Amino acid sequence: MDPNLLYWKSQGQSFLSRVQIWFRLLDPSVLLCSDAQIQRAHSLMGGEERRGQDAAAQTLALSSVHAGSGAVLPLVFRPAALMPVSAPLVVASFLPHSSVKPALFWQLLLQSYNAGFNYANRNSSSEQSKTSLKQLLLIAGTVSYATCAGALPQIFINRLGVRSAPIQTFFRSLLPIPLSAALAFFSVSTIRSGETEAGIQVFDSNGNPVGISKAAGEKAVRETALSRAALFGTTAAVPNLLIFLLSRTRLFQRNTLLMAPFRHISIAFILGLMIPVSFSLYPQLGTIKKETLEEELQAAAADGHLFYHRGL
């Protein structure tokens, strides 16, 4: 088992402990380290020097190396890059655009990045070769569909010629909440559908691989999709609720120009707060019960369950 997974097994099995770990791992300063530094830090986690390893090197390895394959993640798709890269895209995608084209443009950038992040952080234990043409077409189709669906509120406003303030509020403030959550769930589910079709590696309590399980793959993808839906759904909902409440105060009624910057700041703030929370909803090293596993793998679940790498 990869040293990163061993760490999550020993340290990250409770929600609060996972939140604490993710707040540390999401420090953007780790993005400045070179691949050589990352590889050395990762090698220390698996060697005899592990106990004497300083916290900075441990953080670097956990935040920059894929926990399943042991490979260094691409810079922009590391967990610490999610906030600085996606925050401006999320803010721009929620802007009240005047036409469909800018709405499609920002949705294209956001959905493309989400697809890349989901793919880079998948569980690739059952894959036999590099990215296939089928996977590339699946990614392109997912991005295209999610881009069009994400721009639906603006498309409805323009095509229907909506002028009513309450109806515009519905399309701009209420509809994006379930839509953002659904598209986030959809992106993870489709980009990582290979895990549900081919299965993923499962391990016993000693960290030994015992086989490939489709049931574990389905559970890993479902958990990650739900956590991503919680991330983007909450990011869409909470700022709108705050704006609604503050719009009734005298300060914001007298200074309406404060509304737009407050909306942008609150979106970025909630996104940054929800990233470690959503990452912590389910363990990185998940467990699957014996009775849920395929028959040929149940004998290996001596403790009543097996472990799997959930991905991110």
Name the shape in a single word. Answer: globular
Biggest sheet, open or closed, and with what strands and sense? 4 strands, antiparallel
Order of adjacent strands in the largest pleated sheet: 2-1-4-3
Mean of pLDDT: 88
Q: Low-confidence segments, ≥5 residues, pLDDT <50? A: 48-52
- Strand content is 5-15%
DSSP, total strands? 4
Which helices and strands occur, and which strands form pairs?
Blueprint (H helix, E strand, L loop, with lengths): L2 H9 L3 H11 L9 H11 L9 H10 L14 H15 L6 H21 L12 H18 L1 H9 L4 H10 L1 H16 L1 H6 L1 E4 L5 E5 H33 L3 H5 L4 H21 L5 E5 L5 H4 L6 E5 L3
Antiparallel strand pairs: 1-2, 1-4, 3-4
Helix pairs in contact: 3-4, 5-6, 5-14, 6-7, 6-10, 7-10, 10-12, 12-14
In short:
The chain is of the alpha+beta class. The protein is built from 15 helices and four strands. Helix content is 64%, strand content 6%.
What do these coordinates show?
By secondary structure, the chain is an alpha+beta fold. It contains 15 helices and 4 strands. The protein has a 4-stranded antiparallel beta sheet. A hairpin with a 5-residue loop joins strand 1 and strand 2. Helix 7 packs antiparallel against helix 10. The longest helix is centred in the C-terminal third of the chain and has 33 residues. About 2% of the residues have low confidence.
Please tag this protein with its features:
alpha+beta, 15 helices
